[in-house]
Structure formats: structure tokens, C-alpha cells
């Protein structure tokens, strides 16, 4: 475990309810470690498809927090909660980074694909992937903290 990964986790095995709560520093290696841990735990509980969709959405959002939320600031904590809800998995991410532009989740429009391959942009794909993977995506700024909540459906949309 990473030294900067303070773990507050509770999970029950089998068919009983489980919940994951983690607090970690907004650093690329910490995000990678958290995603690896979640992947191992989720694959058996959710099946490979749902676990992969959850990992994709979490990777995009958490890496955005690291890259943009704490850009130009000293790194800070990220609180992540994952818990089952009816028909899916609820994910909640809280950080103290910069607020999202216009205090809302970016629209996530795909970049123009009608260009030569070498002219395709490197970035600009993340929020479109998130929006296409999750449901109920919400954002709010509360007491200087960003709160992003979304649901991973158990079956693809």
C-alpha cells in the first residue's frame, strides 16, 4: 500500500451489502493503486463488464481531479465511496481542488473526428466516456469541496 493512501474501507463478502470508502492523496500513483484495489474487489462482486465500466468512469474522474482539480495547487485528499444501490453501484468522489468550470460537469462532446488521423486531439475524450458509461451524473460545490456522484448500472445502457 502506498504510504500516502489512508484507507477507510469496509466490505462484507458474499451476497451481503458491501461498501468501499477510501481516502488518498491526489497523485497519479495513488489513483492507480486505488483503481487496482477496486478492480480486484469489484470483479467478483459485479462481474467483469460492470467492474470494467466502473473502473473506466472512476479512472477518468479521478485522473481529472489530479490533473485539473489540483493543478497549480498543493495536492490534497480525495474521498471515494462506492456502494451498491438498486440496479447499480453508486460512486461518490469528493475533493478540495479547483471548482469545475461554470460549476458544472463539462458537456463531454467528442472532438471533431472528421480530420486526418495525425490531427486527432490527444485529449477531450474523458467526459464523453464518463457520460456514456454512467447514469445520474451530478456535480456540486459544497463548502469549498467538489462532489461528483454517479451510478454505474449493473447492465450496460
Q: Please, how many helices?
A: 3
Could you give the count of β-strands? 6
Radius of gyration: 16 Å
Shape: globular
- Cα end-to-end separation: 35 Å
Tell me what the CATH architecture is. Answer: 2-Layer Sandwich
Q: In CATH, what is the class?
A: Alpha Beta
Major sheet, described briefly? 6 strands, antiparallel
Percentage of residues in strands: 25-35%
- Report low-confidence residues grouped into runs of 5 or more: 1-16
- The share of residues in helices is 25-40%
Q: Say what oligomer this is.
A: single chain
Structural class: alpha+beta
CATH topology: Heat Shock Protein 90
Question: Strand arrangement, largest sheet?
Answer: 1-2-3-4-6-5
What is the element string, with H for helices and E for strands?
EEHHEEHEE
| Overall number of domains | 1
Q: What is the CATH H-level superfamily?
A: Histidine kinase-like ATPase, C-terminal domain
Whole-number mean pLDDT: 85
Overview of the structural elements:
With 157 residues, the protein is an alpha+beta fold. Helix content is 31%, strand content 27%. It is built from 3 helices and 6 strands, in the order ββααββαββ. The protein has helices at residues 28-46, 48-69, 126-133, and strands at 5-7, 20-25, 77-85, 88-95, 135-142, 145-153. A hairpin with a 2-residue loop joins strand 3 and strand 4 (88-95). It is globular and about 45 Å long. 22% of the residues are buried.
Amino acid at each position: 500500500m502506498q504510504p500516502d493512501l489512508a484507507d477507510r474501507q469496509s466490505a462484507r463478502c458474499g451476497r451481503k451489502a458491501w461498501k468501499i470508502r477510501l481516502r488518498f492523496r491526489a497523485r497519479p500513483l495513488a489513483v492507480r493503486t486505488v483503481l487496482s484495489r477496486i478492480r480486484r474487489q469489484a470483479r467478483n462482486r459485479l462481474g467483469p463488464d460492470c467492474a470494467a465500466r466502473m473502473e473506466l468512469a472512476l479512472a477518468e474522474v479521478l485522473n481529472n481531479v489530479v490533473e485539473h482539480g489540483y493543478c497549480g495547487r498543493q495536492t490534497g485528499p480525495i474521498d471515494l465511496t462506492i456502494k451498491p444501490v438498486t440496479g447499480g453501484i453508486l460512486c461518490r468522489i469528493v475533493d478540495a481542488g479547483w471548482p469545475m468550470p461554470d460549476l458544472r460537469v463539462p458537456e463531454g462532446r467528442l472532438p471533431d473526428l472528421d480530420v486526418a488521423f495525425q490531427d486527432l486531439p490527444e485529449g477531450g475524450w474523458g467526459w464523453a466516456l464518463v457520460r456514456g458509461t454512467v447514469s445520474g451524473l451530478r456535480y456540486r460545490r459544497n463548502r469549498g469541496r467538489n462532489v461528483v456522484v454517479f451510478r454505474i448500472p449493473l447492465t450496460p445502457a
